[in-house]
Amino acid sequence: MKKSVLFLAAAALAAGCATADKQSPKNTINQDEVMSKLSLEDKAHFVIGTGMAGFSGNDAVIGATRSLVPGAAGTTYPLDSLGIPAVVLADGPAGLRIDAKRDGDSATYYCTHFPIGTLLASTWNTQLIEQVGQAIGEEVKEYGADVLLAPALNIMRNPLCGRNFEYYSEDPVVAGKTAAAYITGVQKNDVGTSIKHFAANNQETNRMNNDAHISQRALREIYLKGFEIAIKESKPWTVMTSYNYINGVYTSESKDLVTTILRDEWGYEGTVMTDWFGGKDGAKQMWAGNDMLQPGKAEQFDSIVAGVKSGKLSEADLDRSVKRILNLVEKSPRYQGYKYSNKPDLKAHAAVTRQSAAEGMVLMKNGGALPFAKTVKNVALYGNTSYDFIAGGTGSGNVNHAYVVSLLDGLKNGGYTVSDELKNAYAAYAAECKAKVEAEIAAAAKKDPKNAMLMRFMPRPLPAEKQFSADELTKQAAASDIAVITLGRISGEFMDRKAADFNLSDSERQLITQVCDVYHKAGKQVVVLLNIGGVIETASWNQLPDAILCAWQAGQEGGNSVVDVLSGKQSPSGKFTMTWPVNFTDAYSSKNFPVDQDPRIDMTNQGSKSANVKNVDYTDYEEDIYVGYRYFDSFDVPVSYPFGFGLSYTTFAYSDAKIVENGDAYEVSVTVKNTGKHEGKEVVELYISAPDNQAANKPVKELKAYGKTKQLAPGESETITMTVQAADLASFDESASAWVVAAGEYQFLVGASSADIKATLKATVKAQQTKVNNVLAPQTQLNLLKR
Ligand code: BGC
For the chain, which has fewer Cβ within 10 Å, the N-terminal or C-terminal residue? Predict the structure, then answer.
């Protein structure tokens, strides 16, 4: 990469920008003047990032910008002599990811590890999610970053996707609304977000070179819909394109996706950037409207300059992207001269994460073990992750947190006592397992330091569960009031989960069986807690324990949040945003998912799409629109837990369901009454069933809106109103390239889950059609599932 004259001219990166605080007038960039001073080379530099240490071979530029906020994923390119600073882009979904420590600096820069995306979505509480976003955004701003590389919004197409923990749902409405709330919250701080990964990054295996073959209808109704909802509702400052191809074209090189759909149809006006090292042809990415290439590679610079010189890329297209990045820089706290404190309110944010995490936990079974009875004082704690609670997944979705509250500490904080004998046994076992892992990493580092770095960045298999003899368990059962067993799972980018990760291991199965057996014989109850990022198999063992709570990966206050729920301080009110299949192969997408394949890790996209291995080089989305409950419901396939399911410590009655037509809108209201003895909140779900849906090849029902009550005291009621626009009822008709609402009588189903419909209302809807562009058609024949 040729070094820019402008870059060399500068040392103090932020010096060129005017100083301002919130009260001062907004500083503006005179774009015409800046543009008039930029050479072609300057522009080519400006649209690509400043590189990534160890990967881009561009260490001079990286050195200068990395020091802005160490550990941030990247920056924009500074034009210092023109007063245009580099702005800082940092991950990620569960909180800001920057280095916690800096060389020669005794201060620490820890960030709050908030709950994973899946947990946030499971709250179905957009107000709460907005508050979490606001807290995350405050850390972004106070640590001197400008754009948060989040939220991540891909559809949970298959239970084994390695990044499902960062994502929200198998349903685009839940995903879109959750993302919109998160973005609104973060951006309230006048910092940016980057909604990602646009689009269809639904597997990690060969993620940089996988071609997703998807019908236009499934793209429009499922894989793009969530982005459309979030982008229109919340206007993220940036959009991050994904790594994969869609129907033969890299998303970052697809004008149809990045310009025709995103900008022309949805009216998006912000900046589009690639995922890190995503795509191949810099000139084509610019032409497509992907404004910024991150983190930047020498080839991209060369490709853009050569592209303009040869006429392959018009300079006007390049200018347009330069201007969009200038718009982004202009809005940034760094350009506005914001004096960040490096002291976000970590204490207040610990309270936010604690409360939000408790609200997204899902009670799956309760035979009376929860909340703990007043007589429960001594808790016997089993499972490795009870003592080493998993706050979140690995990779760019991780956060450098100061601490994680384990379940052990959470129980102690809650006033419970725990068995010291068990604690000591687990501590010794953990030390043994840790030593083995460190030895493996040290051996790998000897061969190649990059390997060791990767091993730390990526998920490591968790150790087998420690086993106990019947005598040991009997002794523990006599000394404790209840047993809690935690099962853990961890995953992250670059790799999908293995089939074995979905199923229970032998050691887990044995632990649950034996503990339940011994405790039940002793007249004591057993609670299983799931500290996981994605769904697991439950059908073969869920009859054994007395209660099951899905705590997800609940962030750094995890143990405290769990104990808030176990103790009854907070009634669980989370519901699943995905289906829990009996076997993962029950999901139709499993026929076309890279189960237990070589992940083909390719850090900087050196690979090629030459081979043609099914589900690795290309993936046929043959389930079409039948993703998640749309499949299980429509084809009567039994599940372990349906979409939208979640129990409470109390019970709710639904009454007075009504539908009112208001122009083109349908307002559905229902009164929810707390009929139990505990306070609690209820999520209300609104599904639509289309007329003649068999003939129209539609799912039996689709979620269109939802609401959540406030905390209801026993006996208290609240009326929830949910609004659906007639246009929301449309399906995508490929032959007409249009969203089509078929005329007829629609059923509006008010449910407590997709499988528990409380009231059915009806309304006659008029036909409508909205034409859109005929783009992104598959290039291969797909054998699509139909009803
Ligand atoms: C991930 C993105 C992330 C980026 C920067 C990529 O590997 O896919 O989600 O924002 O790295 O860290």
Answer: C
For residues 406-420, average pLDDT: 97
Distances (CA, A) of 352 to 97, 115, 132: 18, 10, 7
The yes-or-no verdict on residue 146 having pLDDT over 50 is yes
Q: Is the dihedral of CA 243, 245, 250, 252 positive or negative?
A: negative
Tokens matching residue 246: 């869609």
In angstroms, what is the span from residue 234 Cα to ligand 1's centroid? Answer: 21
Q: Is-above-0.85 flag for pTM?
A: yes
How does 606-642 read in b/e, with b if 16+ C-beta sit within 10 Å?
A: eeebeeeeebbbbbbbbbbbbbbbbbbbbeeeebbbb
Ligand 1: residue whose CA is nearest its atom 11 = 276
Query: How far is the centre of ligand 1, averaged over its atoms, from the C-alpha of 199 (Å)?
Result: 14
Atom of ligand 1 lying closest to residue 92 CA: 10
Q: Which residue has the tokens 């497509």?
A: 288
- The sign of the torsion formed by the CA atoms of 474, 479, 483, 488 equals negative
Domains of the chain with CATH codes: 3-331 (3.20.20.300), 352-580 (3.40.50.1700), 650-771 (2.60.40.10)
Q: What is the DSSP letter of 2?
A: P
Q: 507-525: string of b/e by CB count within 10 Å (b at 16+)?
A: ebbebbebbbebbbeeebb
User: Strand pairing of 665-674 and 652-662?
Assistant: antiparallel
* pLDDT tens digits, 195-222: 999 999 999 999 999 999 999 999 999 9
Report the pocket of ligand 1 as residue ranges, CB < 6 Å.
73, 91-92, 149, 196, 275-276, 396, 493
- Strand ranges (DSSP E) for 584-716? 618-620, 639-641, 652-662, 665-674, 683-689, 702-708
Of 547, 583, 134, nearest to 376 (Cα)?
547
**Closest CA relative to residue 512, chosen from 487, 534, 476:** 487
Residue nearest to atom 8 of ligand 1 (CA): 275
Q: Which two tokens stand for residue 373?
A: 């009875």
Phi, psi (degrees; rounded to nearest 5) at 655: -150, 170
In this structure, which residue's CA is closest to atom 3 in ligand 1? 396
CB 74 within 8 A of CB 86: no
**How far apart are alpha carbons 91 and 98 in whole angstroms?**
8
Neighbours of 730 (CB within 10 A): 19
Residue nearest to atom 9 of ligand 1 (CA): 396
Residue identifier of the C-alpha nearest atom 4 of ligand 1: 276
Of 52, 55, 91, the residue with max ligand 1 atoms within 8 A of its CB, to mutate for a pocket test, comes to: 91
- Average the pLDDT over each of 113-127, 206-220, 681-695 and give the range with the smallest value: 681-695
CA 623 to ligand 1 center in whole angstroms? 28
Q: How many other CB atoms are found less than 10 A from the CB of residue 382?
A: 26
Tokens of 309: 């010189």
Tracing tokens 């932020």 back to the chain, one arrives at 14
pLDDT interval class at 11 (50, 70, 90): very low
Instruction: Tell me how far apart the alpha carbons of residues 93 and 492 are, in angstroms, rounded to a whole number.
Output: 12
**778 Cα–ligand 1 center, Å:** 27
> Catalytic residue at 91?
no
Ligand 1 pocket mutation pick from 201, 276, 457 by most atoms within 8 angstroms of CB: 276
Catalytic residue from among 80, 146, 275, 291: 275
Ligand 1 centroid to Cα of residue 196, in Å, is 9
Of ligand 1's listed atoms, the one at least distance from the Cα of 197 is 9
pLDDT band at 284 (very low <50, low <70, confident <90, very high): very high
Residue-wise pLDDT tens digits, 619-634: 999 999 999 999 999 9
| Substitution site in 69, 194, 238, 493 for ligand 1 pocket (most atoms within 8 Å of beta carbon) | 493
The rounded Å distance from CA 742 to ligand 1 centre is 41
